[in-house]
Amino acid sequence: MKVNVFCGVALLAMMMALQGEVPVVEAATCNPMELSPCLAAITTGTQPSQACCDKLKEQEPCLCGYIKDPNLGRFVNSPNAMKVQKSCGVPAPKC
Prior knowledge:
Oligomer: single chain
Low-confidence stretches: 1-26
Radius of gyration: 18 Å
Structural class: mainly alpha
Order of helices and strands: HHHHHH
């Protein structure tokens, strides 16, 4: 009985997702190289490009992991990185 209920719920969720009524969230692939369009803005303090902002928004779920990495944390926490996040509308991560 429990298996049939689970299958029914799963089928209903799948049908709703196919109809567009349930948002399907794609998990971000955490790859700091994806933020390469932001390199100039982070290192020089220039205005970030739209490509930078798009990538930053994609990588937002990964920022805490980057902060914890000793090789990347100094870049993610830098004053210029904070300016880029603010310019792109990405909140500072709360890790």
